[in-house]
Amino acid sequence: MKSLLNIKWNKLFYNILFIIVWNLFLNLINAKKITVNNESELINSFSYANNNSINELIININDTTFELLDDIIINNSIEKLYIIGKSKEQSILKFNNIKNGMIFTNSLYEINQEIKFVNLTITGHLELYSIVNVIFEDVEINGNVLFDKSNKYLWSSGDYNYNIEYFEKNLNVTITMTRITYTSLSDTPTYCLNLFGNVILKDSKFYGHSLCTYAIIDYNGEDTNNLSISNSYFNGMYENECIKIYNAKNTNINSSIFENGTSNVYGGGAMLLYNSAFDIKNCTFRNFYTPYYGGIFYIYYPKSFLVDGINVYNTTAMYGGSLLYVYSLWDNERDINLLNVNLYGAGLLDQPVPYGGLIATIDGYINLNMLNFYGEDLYEGNGYGLFLMQYKTNIELKRVFGPNMGSIIAYSIENSNNSNFHITNGAFIDFYQDLSNPASIAIASAVIMALEEINILFKNTITIENSHFENNSGINGAIFFIDHVSEDFDNDIIINNSLFESNHAENFGGVIYTPNKFNVTKSNSRISFNNCEFRNNTAKKGDISFSFTKSDSPYFTNIEELIKMGSIVSNPTHIKLLSESYDSIEMLSGETLLNEINFVIMDDYDNIINTDPIEKVDDIFFFKVEFNDTYNAKLVCQSGYYCDIGTCSIPSLKGHPGNYDLIIKLQTFGNYKMFNDSVITIDLKIKECNNSFLYQDIENVGIKSWYSHLSCF
Asked: 336, 302 in Cβ contact below 8 A?
């Protein structure tokens, strides 16, 4: 018992000793500790600070809700200020008018300055001017927060000349927020949470609100400071973008979640980055939208940009770049690196992306490098494709996998500086390009590439290597649609060691469609498929390739094999009489020619073209039959005919003596381009009848019996 009493006595002794030492320490550093239980005591505690010269003030907030009517202004230079509550749930500072709050107007510019908020809730706004170090721990904030190094007068007057003292002392300003919950209630729409200096945000939650127009966080690093975010959660509440970052020396974001953001100004549904270095890893983004550019990232003049390990669900930027938009016209090229990115859902099924690429719009001198990209359910309608490249843009994709997409991969405009597009180890599966608008065919009707007027719009080298294209579909050219190439085209489209499997075009070109004349003066094709494998690709015509003529076709290392399979087809180039027909015919006047005249429509590889079922008028080849001498010869019956499936036939003839050219001429070309060699001329000689016959105008066409006369049955 005595031993137990001694233990209790020793413990009490040390507690008393600690209190004595602590109070002596507080007195030594000129500190004041105040416990407040109501609004009046809280206001008096700050008044005490304003009216007394102290180095340190500790304000303990009891478990009470403080209903506050007016601003609390702290204008004394307190070196250390601690406002400490019991917990966020118990200690609450509530300003009844959201326009009111706590305003710190004249803090010290000293390296050991510290303002700290712990274990409480603040509803109202916070303004901290000329600050150096601020710490929030286990705090809930409902309202706008403004940090600025200038003093109150400079901010209010609109004079943004920064405080000279701040620069002279070269202070390392730090703002730290740990385990905070922030909701951006604000009466000032231009900012919600305004930050500068070296900012550390960790284990915290941030929510947008309709009262705040722009981003939840607005950060300016002044080219010398860093922003760090980890293990945090951002929810724009479909009202705000999450973060705007200006002039950050370094930005590091790790293991955080961003949801439900929108930007109705400029773009960047999740983030807008200006003149900043940026590094983000292991983060998730869900449900972002902007009517402008950059569904997730809007990047303007980047210093550097690295994404590694992000998952993105449901993002749309109506102008383009549902994942990112990048703009930079600095002379030195900047690298945009995206590693291990998964994109699930972008774009709208029934609405095109009119001005940019669905995934990325790259505008300027940029190297975009993507490694291990997976995308599915991507829909860009009749727009510009997954990537839009402008100026000197280099794009390299490695280990890309994309099922369930409805888009082309790349479209390029104004590239006069020899840009590059490179895909390595890509896998593109279940793409579908829906082209209901014929006007869009020339620019957007292939899964991978749509090029128009390459000499003006696309002066790039495109390289695709070791990639896999499976089960993709489109109207024309399930993988490539290349509309025009002009004479000064001097770049290559190269596909090496790739597999094309089960791709389908509803009309022409199961893999590639090149429907127009390539005015390329070089003897070799600039589009080449080297050591590629093709399995079960289909189209109405040209299971692998459909070109304007043989000379306009891409190069295939196994071209002869593919031709024998009938997989390489061109636009029709000529019409040809069948072997059982004749190019010279003799018959007696009045005699019926027993054999029909048959011809077929053929391409440059001698494939018969008109073999498809006729489903509508536009599918039909119409042709006309006429004579070289229309004065002395005439068809009594109709002169216009159309081709049946497979062959085109002219019915048997009757006629009167004479030598004629029977001319067969195509008038329409069905779904194909017009071609020159579309006329056949047959020598027709009609001999005199036996003298026992009488010449008569049997058909009553008004031609006298002694004139030459033909009729068709």
From this structure: yes
Percent of the chain with pLDDT over 70: 66
Per the DSSP assignment, residues forming a β-bridge with 388 are: 361, 411
Place of tokens 């000349």: 161
Give, in degrees to the nearest 5, the angle at Cα 554 between 552 and 560: 105
Query: Nearest Cα to 314, choosing from 368, 266, 269, 255?
Result: 269
pTM of the model: 0.71
| Helices then strands, each counted (H, E), the chain | 6, 60
CB neighbours of residue 436 within 10 Å: 8
Judge whether 324 and 356 are in contact, CB under 8 Å: no
| Measured distance CA(268)–CA(289) in Å, rounded | 8
Q: How far is CA 48 from the centre of its chain?
A: 58
Is the separation of the CB atoms in 242 and 216 below 8 Å? yes
Give the whole-angstrom CA distance, residue 118 versus residue 59: 10
Cα–Cα distance between 88 and 120 in angstroms, integer? 4
For the chain, percent helix, then strand, then coil, each to nearest 5?
Answer: 10, 45, 45
Per-residue pLDDT tens digits for 212-267: 878 999 999 989 999 999 999 999 999 999 999 999 999 999 999 999 999 988 88
pLDDT tens readout for residues 386-414: 766 665 566 666 666 655 555 556 555 54
CB 249 within 8 A of CB 274: no
- Indicate the SS3 state at residue 153: helix
**Phi and psi of 457, rounded to 5°?**
-100, -25
Looking at residue 710, its pLDDT comes to: 47
Question: In the sheet where 597-603 sits, what is the strand order?
Answer: 572-577, 597-603, 648-650
Q: How much of the chain exceeds pLDDT 90, in percent?
A: 29
Query: What 8-state DSSP symbol labels residue 551?
Result: G
List pLDDT tens digits, range 602-647. Answer: 999 989 887 777 777 777 888 888 777 655 555 555 666 788 887 8
List all residues 6 or more positions away from 11 whose beta carbon is below 8 Å from its beta carbon: none
Cα 564 to Cα 10, 561, 605, distances in angstroms: 101, 5, 9
CA distances to 142, 387, 399, 443, 518 from 393, rounded to whole Å, are: 44, 11, 20, 19, 25
Residues near 202 by Cβ (< 8 Å), separated by ≥ 6? 177, 178, 179, 228, 229, 230, 231, 232
3-state secondary structure of 97: coil
Q: What does each C-alpha distance from 593 to 244, 596, 695 come to in angstroms?
A: 84, 7, 18
pLDDT digits (tens, 9 = 90+) for 503-518: 998 889 999 988 877 6
Q: How far is CA 72 from the centre of its chain?
A: 48
CB 505 within 8 A of CB 481: no
State the DSSP string of 109-123.
--TT-EEEEEEEEEE
What are the residue ranges spanned by the domains of the chain? 574-712
Q: Would you place residue 175 in the very low, low, confident or very high pLDDT band (cuts 50, 70, 90)?
A: very high
Instruction: Report the CATH number of the 574-712 domain.
Output: 2.60.40.10
Q: Is 687 helix (H, G, I), strand (E, B) or coil?
A: strand
d(CA 632, CA 707): 7
As a whole number of angstroms, the distance between CA 510 and CA 446 comes to: 10
Radius of gyration of the chain (CA): 39
Confidence bin at 280 (pLDDT 50/70/90): very high
